[in-house]
Amino acid sequence: MIQRLKTYYSETVSPLLIKKMAYKNCHQIPKIQKIQVNRCLGLAAQNTNILKKSIEEFIAITGQKPIITKSKKAIAGFKIREEMNLGITVTLRNDKMYAFLDKLINVTLPQIRDFRGISSDKFDKNGNFNIGLTEQLVFPEINYDDVDQTRGFNISIVTTAKTKNEGKTLLEAFNFPFND
Q1: Rounded distance between C-alpha atoms, residue 18 and residue 33, angstroms
Q2: What are the boundaries of each domain within the chain?
Q3: Neighbours of 78 (CB within 10 A)
Q4: What number is the average pLDDT over the span 13-41?
Q5: pLDDT digits (tens, 9 = 90+) for 80-133
Q6: pLDDT digits over 121-170, tens only?
């Protein structure tokens, strides 16, 4: 099944970016490489029930099983031992990436209470976009009764853009809800 945003990119966004940014080569057009969704649980990851619940939520939200991130070295001040579970992460590419982006733009972000758009200063100098959500309840797959505690997570949209302006133009072409 071809995703709606994938065909939208090839039919609408690419010609728009060529016209707007005056690219000479079709390979210069920025595109979205991957979307990475992360949740840091900290010492709560030692509780297997919390870890399993977070994994189930990520499977429901992204449609892909997350990887458990572990500590690389021991830090006594933070009570962290080597190879200790600290969080979970998912990297989405191709069709799953476009499906998640479509759901994020059209369903999830408008469900946020008092939503007025996202600030565009969350781009890094290479055109990648990072956003943090404070709770998982904004996703329609998550049932309110199943949540014992709200936990936030980070979403990183990695692009092939060279500058901040190129990345913003790319996401604006996908109708990303910026407030400026």
Answers
A1: 18
A2: 4-173
A3: 10
A4: 85
A5: 777 677 788 999 998 889 888 888 888 888 777 777 888 878 888 888 999 888
A6: 888 888 899 988 888 777 878 777 777 777 888 999 999 988 888 888 88
- Specify whether the CB–CB gap between 90 and 66 falls below 8 A: yes
Give the separation between CA 85 and CA 69, rounded to whole angstroms.
6
Candidates 3.40.710.10, 3.40.50.1580, 3.30.1440.10, 1.20.120.1200; correct CATH number of 4-173?
A: 3.30.1440.10
Angstrom distance (rounded) from CA 69 to CA 73: 12
Structure tokens at 25: 């080569």
Tokens for 104?
Answer: 């994020």
Residues 102-117: pLDDT tens digits? 888 888 887 777 778 8
